[in-house]
Every structure is written in structure tokens, then in C-alpha cells.
Records
---
Amino acid sequence: MKYSHHIEFKVRDYECDMQGVVNNGVYQNYLEHARHEFLQTRGINFAEVTESGINLVVIRAELDYKNSLKSNDTFVVRSLVRQISRVRFEFQQDVYKLPQEKLMLAARITGTSLNANGRPFVPDMLTQLFITD
């Protein structure tokens, strides 16, 4: 698969649960940070977009946990984004443990943008990011 962006992380001790693995909810933090960094690399500042009256929101999150990360593991989040309808876009994000490149999580995050009136739309600044099939 051809990804649009990747970012590396290292698991911190406090992200792990009593079983010694990364808590399932922490993966959503990793994915969100990767999406924000992806936008930043394309000249889109998430905070500035929000201040302009456009809210980028998640409307669905599908996470398939394949394996567990542990404290001090290094990993990469790889992302791509595509438009899936007139008003929705989807990030496909995969988490790979390094250096083995072992798939740990496969996610599909569906989002939309809401204008100042709360109506969904996809702004032009985002359409330039989409991967076409």
C-alpha cells in the first residue's frame, strides 16, 4: 500500500495497562496525533482550521488490534486519506512495530468537516490530500 505519511513513536510506560501492554484507548491518541502531523506537513494547522469555523470531526473509528505493543517499543503509524463520499473522508492508518515491521493495528477513521452552521462538507484544502483509487 502507498501511504501518504508516516511518523515514528516510542511507547511510554504510563501508556501501558496492568497487563504490561499499551492500553487499547491509547492507540486512538497515536492515530490522532499522526493525523494532525500529516495535516501539518501539508500546510494545514488543525487549530487554525478550527479557529476559522471549520471543525474536523471523527464520526466512526474502526480499530483492528492485531498484536500488542509494550513499554519502550518503537513503532510507526502510516496513514493515507481518501474521500469516500461527498461529505466524508477516511484515514486508513496502520501501526507497525519497528524494526520488524510487524502489523500491530489496522484502523479506518471516518471523518467529516462541519461548517459554522454544523453542516457537513469537505473544504477545498482537504480535497488536495485525497488519494484516488
Note: The chain has one domain: 5-127.
---
Amino acid sequence: MGIFKKIGNALRKTREAIARKIDALLSHGEIDDDFYDELTDILISCDVGVKTSLEIVEQLRLSARKQKIRTAAEVKNQLKQILKEDFMSLNQISIEYPAVITIIGVNGVGKTTTIGKLSKYFKDNKKDVLLVAGDTFRAAAANQLNEWAIRTKTRIVKQNEGADAASVVFDGIASAKARKTDVVLVDTAGRLHTKTNLMEELKKIDRVISREYPQAHRYTFIVLDATTGQNALSQISAFNDFVKIDGIILTKLDGTAKGGVVIAIEKEFSLPVVFIGVGEGENDIEPFDSNDFIDNLF
């Protein structure tokens, strides 16, 4: 299945929720204040968020007035153009090698599965990959990651449950440097901001990587579950207090009608979405392309 079609399938529920309502609005309504109020409500219902929805609709209102837009088709095209320009204004991430990618997030968002999919993605792109089982807190987490290592034929560094996570990362970095590995994917324990000890552990892992492998290109990606909607935004805020987040990986996009949260993330945090989960299979992760996303959304 082509990338565009995969993204289209993943966005089907969101697209149906947004497009159906917008088309109904455009088919019988004048382009007036009531129209813009209803459009705001539609965007909010798809988890674009109140603040972001108001900002986008105000941009659209001003643009439509300036360009003397009158027809439904013109309004829709202008809305797409505004969103595309917003995404293009972000600093996009182009991963450079050797890369150390630390994966963070709360429990249940699919971090370990995402790392498994990423290992397959990078290997398919001819990169040598190492998995580091830095989640020593959750029972069987290393075993789960090891299953992915077997499945994707990827090397893994792990220790026993309860080991010091930073120690596992130290071993992983040593192995990666010795083998001139292209991509190191570091799993970490799922945590909430209330778990201060685990948050401090993230900072310790960060220090180890910086000290032991300063020549590597560093990335910290937070995994968010698209089905949690606006709650994903509070997770970004919580983790931002402890580590510098470089980008977002959005999972379970195919399971929600509220994929508009991607737009809210972009507007509120100016953070790029780097990868999106587009299904359950090991190949179902794709680099995020904002133009494809907006085109598929409408």
C-alpha cells in the first residue's frame, strides 16, 4: 500500500468527521459570522482545541475578506492553504547519523511497539540499528523489546529488570560506538510527571548520552496516543519541564476521529510531528508529511 493511501486510511475517521460537517456547512450556508462560528465548533469537535480553532478561523476570516472569497470551494482551499503554511513554518527534523533517539512518554501510548516499528523502518532504509532496553522499571519491558529485536533482526542491549536505566544506556552507547551503529533507539520507562524519580532518571539518561557520545546527533521524541486528544497536550507540557523534546510520534491515529490534535500540537508547541502510526503492522509507521496530512484531512 502506498504511503499516501496508508495515511488516508489512518485519517479516515477524522476526515469523515471533519469533511462531512464542513461540506454540509458549505453546501447551505452563507459565508457570514454564523458560518465562521459553526466552523470553529467543527474544528473543536475534532480536537483541534478551542484556542487553536479560534486562531485558525480568524486567519481564514481575514484572508477571505482580503481576497474577496465567496464560494464554498474557495473557502475550503483557503483553509487548507492556511494550515499548510502553518506547518511549513516549523523547523522540520531531518535525522542525521549517527543518531541516538530517546523515546519518552506515559504508559500505554505504545512506546515499545513504536520503537519496534522504527527499527524496521530504519533497517528498510539500509541503516544499522541498535535497540537499548532502558525501561527497567516495568516488568517484562525488556522481554517485549527483545521480541521486536528478534522480529526485525536487530541487535539489542539489555540488563535485568530493576537495573539502573542509565547503566543500560551507557552499555548501549559503548556498543554503538564500537560497531559504528547508525541509529540507537533508547526505550525508557513510561512515566507521569508525578513520578519525580522516573523524571529525574530521564535527565540522568540524557547526561550519559551527552557525556559518552557527544559526536552523535541527539533526538528526543515523545510518543502520544492520538485517541487521548487534548490530554496529549498536557503530556507534552509535563515532559518539557524535564527534557528538551525535539518532536512528536503520534500513534493510533487510525483509531480516532479526533486527529485534529496534530494541528493543536503544531500551533501550541511549535513542535514537528516526525512519525505517525498508521496501523498495527510492523511496517505501519510513516514519516509525517504535513501536505499529505492536510490533503487527506479534507
Note: The longest strand covers residues 217-225.
---
Amino acid sequence: MSQSPPISKLILSDAEWRARLTPEQYRIAREHGTERACTGPGWDEKRKGVYRCVCCQTDLFESRTKFESGTGWPSFFQPIAPGLIDEHEDLSLGMRRIEVLCAVCDAHLGHVFPDGPRPTGLRYCINATVLDFIPDED
């Protein structure tokens, strides 16, 4: 079985992140914030394409793995490849959740829950504000 090559980390200073991102992108990605449901850009996008991390432009999710969860946030049942997403226990807000981060730049993306569809049974509930959607060229 072959292994994926190691991820090269993108490390920037706080000032560099602030210069690169909008205030809302910074609040969510760098300060572990959350957008209100149904408010992120393209949260209900239906076209085919790829979703990239807004901070480092790493391809994270494909539209074929997106599904309508009824939550108001983009939901996916798996990332493009293993190792692109880091997971950490999040005990904030008085509950136990699993936070998901971009493995390249450590941007907070959202959380993963065990209530998604087959084949994985997972629901990656991601803030639309920290994703750039790149539509397929037809």
C-alpha cells in the first residue's frame, strides 16, 4: 500500500493572514469562528467543481461528495484525499465535537459528525466562508 507524500505546512504570521483574508474569513479560519446558517457565499452551490481552502488554495472537497444536510452549511461525506483534513476534539460550547482543520494551513473549516450518508456515514459540516468554489470547465 502506498502512502501519500507528507503535507508541506503553510505558516504565516497573524499580520500576513489578516492581509490575505477578509475580516470574516479571518474570524472563521484563524479564530475558529462559525458563520450563521445559510449565509456563507455559495453555501447552496449546486454546480460540479472543487472546493478549496480559502487560506492556502488546497483542494479539499469535490462536489460529487456534497449533499443537502438541511443544516444551512455545505456538507460533504468525505474529503478529496486522506491527510488533507486534520481532526481535533473540540470541547467548546459545552459539548464534544470533532473540529476539522485544513492539514496544510491549519485553517478552521468546521466539524465532522457521524450522521452522514453512505458510503462513509460522515457529515463534514463546513463553513462556506472558508471555501473557494472552482466550477468544472464544461
Note: The chain has one domain: 14-135.
---
Amino acid sequence: MMVSIIIPTYNRADLLPEAIESVLEQTHNDIEIIVIDDGSNDDTREKLKPYQDRIKYMYTENGGPASARNAGMRMAKGEYIAFLDSDDLYYPYKIKIQADFLDNYPDVALVCSEFSAFNDKGYWDEFHLKKYHSSAYMDSKATYEDIYPESISIADAGLNLKRWEHRKIYTGNIFDKYYDEPILSTNTVMFRRSLLESVGLQHEPYWLFEDYEFVLRITRSHMVAFIDVPTYKLRYHAAQISTTKKKLNGSEILFKKYANLLKIAEKHGLNDRDYYSRNKAEVDRKLSGLNKTLAIMLMANGKDIKRAQVYLRRCANYNKPEYLLWYLTFAPHIMRRISLKMKSMLEEI
């Protein structure tokens, strides 16, 4: 089956060729590489000239990663679609083992995997997923067996990976778990292009967590597989935060991330009345937690205390009143900061 690999890029001329080379080195030959240039103003086009006969290229006005991926998905001709950020890399076997698995297991709509992490200063972590999503694994001590109902060995699945043949592939319906915590890496996914007819494209206003929400839609009613083998290499570097929002400082970016997570949680948990009625306690816990986090951020920054109170009222609406935090909204800013610091230290003990 043909696989379409979509590479969105914005001012990554120095790293983009390495990403493309990692795709050209794939052991699966039936691929198309789609590079969506999201309004770059560096020498991206010049760096792509050596690859012009081996890639499909589109330049668009800067619209963010979801907009770029959507443009690529509209162009895609492959039966399967995979993503690659322009500062990251694939292992050579990535496309083959995921495409082979989808070929052999037609009931599975999406397959994801472990991934590695590195930087240019020598950092290397071969199995990075549990560390990256520590709240889902290390903090809660969840295992793959807790998340996925079924498993099979690499060898029994018919995948040609001698080094990893005794590791497992996990499968199942995971929407509830994924709604609760980001338990998989969206960078590593490969999915059937036919899903787009029912699931739709990525939601472009979510310039943070747009990929999480997209995959969440797929998991709602489709089987997912997780291959416990790294297929993707995530690069850590200073310019990782999207430069499309470069005017925002770090605290504003963090606030925006949690605000988007709250919107997604409300959309898939609260606004789906049938799902909410069946999972009220779990959804209330998640929504109250996100509202509490947003309130604390506003209180710590000393900004918009009235808005922080709105988030705290919502905690009470979800049966999780935060009395101490509520009283602190009436305290002087320096007292709030000291109290919040002490509260955080006590919670870590």
C-alpha cells in the first residue's frame, strides 16, 4: 500500500533535509513525501531543490501546524497517512512495519509506536514515551496492559524485526484512557486515509493539541494498535515552540495549552451528553482539574483574578470545590504566591 508522509515546516531549512533523508531511507518503497511550507521566510525552497523530483511541495500562508497538515492530507493519495515534523527523524523501518500491520489487521484504524528522543548535545533516550507522558505512566504507574485489552508479539504479528521480535503490539479501543491522559505519541501515528471521510481534518484553531484532538476523534469509535518499538526520533532543541506564536511568553503558552485542553475535554466529555451521563465522575474529575490548573496560573501571575474565580466556580460545579484557592483570590498578590508555593511543595511530599 502507498503511504503518504506529510511534513509541515516553518523556517526549518537547516533541519528539513535531514528529516527528508530519513524518509528516503525507508525500507518501504511505495511512498509519497508531501512537504507543506507553512509560510517560511528562510531559505527552505533553496534547501529543497535537491529533492524536487522526489517530493511534492506546497507553499501556503502561515496558518500553523494543523493548517499545514490539513493541506497535506488534502493532497495525499496514499491509502495510509503518516506525519513527520520537520525537525525530527524516522527510523528506517518505521513505514514498513506500520503499513504491514495495517495490511494484516484491517480492523485496526490507526497504529502508533514507541519513540526515541535526542538532542545535539548528546542526549539519547531510546524508549521515551513513558518519560514524555509521565503523568499517564510514571505518576499513575499505568502499564500498556492496563490500557490495551489485547496484545501479540512482534513475531506472531508477522513483522520482520528480528531485534524486537519478542516485544509486543497492543490493540484495543482506548478512547476512555486517551481522553483521561495523552497515552500515545501523535507524532508516531499512521492511519487509514479513508478515516478522513468520517473523522474530518484537524481543527485549525487548536494550534496547540490539535493533533491530540484529531487522534482522540479517531479513537472514539475505532481500534488502535501500539507497537512497543521506537519508530520515530524526537529532537529536543531551543526552537521547538512554534514560531507562529513567537510573541507569546512561556507562561502565556502554557496557559493557552491548558485552555485548549479544557476546550477539548469539554467537547468530547461534557458536550457529548450520552458519554457524560455514562462517565460523569471521570469527566467531572478531569474538567475540575483543568479548571483548577488554569485558576492557579492566573493567581500566580496576579492577572485577571476575577477570571480565576470563574474557573474555581466551575470546580465547584463539578463537585470539586477549592475553598482554599477561593479564599486566596481575595488575598494580596505576594501572599497568594507564597501560599501557592507552599501548597505545591506540600502536594509533592
Note: The radius of gyration is 21 Å.
